[in-house]
Write a structure and sequence with these properties.
The chain is mainly alpha-helical and 217 residues long. The protein has a single domain, classed as Helix Hairpins (Orthogonal Bundle), CATH 1.10.287.3240. The chain has five helices and two strands.
């Protein structure tokens, strides 16, 4: 009510408010459409994340089982020596892409899968079980990189959804209703002013007519 008292009850202010309400409602619709699209995109990617997580858990279980077999076959010390001779993995490049205006990571990396020769250790002096371990953990690395991209995308989409939701709610429940209340207030004041002017003019007319009759007598 304190804000309404500071509003100038003029027709110009009324027109400006009506234009602002129209724009606010258009903005509300655009934001609501964006929110709905973001939610749909979020759940699509969420399903992908669940699938990747399940696959990663399975691959990690297979990799650690293969590691245990290799440790039993060649020994822990020898396996550690082989691991130290392995060449570093390929680097990944992190770029960005946009989903509904939200910047999300795009990880560009070649597959981590390599041949025994590319890994760098002398495969002639190792067991095939070592190659199996390497293959299994290379598969794990491929999935980890993909899952990292997907889960970070989910985090950013969730944050944007929350921000957009707050804006939608602010427009729907605070800003637009407040402007509409102000419009009703201005209309009411204009009606009151119009009635006051009407009665004032009526009294002036009556005074003029009474004076005219008195002069005529």
């Amino acid at each position: 009510m304190a804000e309404l008292l500071n509003v100038k009850p003029t027709r110009m202010e009324l027109l400006n408010l009506k234009r602002r309400i129209t724009l606010a409602k258009k903005g509300h619709k655009l934001l609501k459409d964006k929110q709905d699209a973001l939610v749909m995109e979020f759940f699509t990617i969420y399903d992908e994340a669940l699938s990747l997580r399940r696959e990663l858990n399975q691959k990690m279980e297979e990799a650690f089982k293969a590691l245990q077999r290799a440790q039993m076959e060649v020994g822990v010390v020898r396996l550690r020596e082989i691991a130290l001779s392995v060449q570093p993995n390929r680097e990944v490049e992190i770029r960005k892409r946009n989903i509904m205006g939200v910047p999300v990571p795009l990880i560009e990396a070649e597959s981590f899968k390599r041949t025994p020769g590319e890994r760098g250790y002398a495969f002639v002096s190792t067991s095939s079980s070592v190659d199996v371990v390497a293959e299994k953990f290379e598969e794990v690395l491929d999935l980890i990189v993909r899952l990292a991209e997907v889960e970070e995308t989910l985090k950013r989409l969730a944050k944007e959804i929350e921000t957009t939701k707050r804006r939608v709610n602010a427009l729907e429940y605070i800003i637009i209703p407040r402007m509409e209340e102000t419009v009703r207030f201005i209309k009411q004041r204009l009606d009151e002013m119009e009635r006051e002017n009407f009665f004032r003019l009526k009294r002036v007319k009556a005074l003029i007519e009474a004076r005219a009759q008195g002069e005529g007598a």
